[in-house]
Design a protein that fits this description.
3 domains; 229 residues; mainly alpha
């Protein structure tokens, strides 16, 4: 026969189980309070159990999505791996194309260097008089023509520089003579000196005009030589 203490303990346990089931069933607070009282629970302890059930209810809802989220994560990883592999393949292809283009460019530069070296050697032999003009390759003939034109341009430029310097020098002579005339001191032979300076100024101006004409001609010749390049 069960003792009274055991009977009372069983009733409390049954009441506690009923309280927990009622909490999960979301029964009204009044009913929960009655069941907590039947189970001999302090109200604070009952509230703590209710709070834990509310928290675990959220965790259970989240836990129920584990299988679905595992499938989603697996699919996302597979997609990520596929995209990564595709991107890497594209990168590898572009790098291979870039390397091929770089090799082509290097080969073209080497060929150009070889051709330029050959042209220089041919030009050197031509300058020794060992190759008739009629047998020169077109590119070498063009090089000779360009060098000739460049020499003419340089020569014309030198003429422009010389003509500019001459014009500037004569301009300074005119300015110097005009200053001498302007500040000529008073003396008994002032008229003779004025006549002399005026004559020198006229000659200097004539020389300056001629120099300016030569400079204009030199600049035109230089421009013409450059246009032929």
């Amino acid at each position: 026969m069960m003792s009274l203490a055991q009977i009372a303990q069983n009733k409390k346990q049954q009441a506690r189980t009923a309280f927990i089931n009622a909490a999960w069933s979301e029964e009204p607070p009044e009913r929960l309070a009655e069941l907590a009282n039947d189970a001999g629970m302090e109200l604070a302890a009952a509230d703590a159990i209710l709070a834990r059930i509310a928290d675990i209810r959220t965790d259970m809802a989240t836990a129920d999505t584990v299988a679905h989220l595992r499938r989603v994560a697996s699919q996302a990883k597979a997609h990520s791996d596929a995209v990564g592999a595709k991107a890497q393949a594209a990168i590898d292809k572009l790098e291979a194309e870039a390397e091929a283009v770089a090799r082509e460019a290097d080969a073209a530069r080497r060929e150009l260097g070889d051709a330029e070296s050959a042209a220089t050697r041919v030009l050197s032999v031509y300058e020794e008089g060992l190759i008739p003009v009629s047998r020169l390759p077109k590119e070498v003939a063009a090089m000779i023509e360009r060098r000739s034109l460049e020499a003419k341009v340089n020569q014309a430029h030198a003429v422009v520089i010389a003509a500019t310097n001459k014009r500037n020098s004569l301009r300074e002579d005119v300015q110097r003579l005009e200053r001498e005339l302007q500040y000529l001191p008073i003396s008994r032979d002032r008229k003779e000196q004025e006549a002399r300076l005026n004559a020198e100024i006229e000659r200097a101006k004539a020389a300056l005009a001629a120099a300016e004409t030569r400079l204009i001609d030199a600049e035109r010749a230089h421009a013409k030589a450059r246009s032929a390049l």
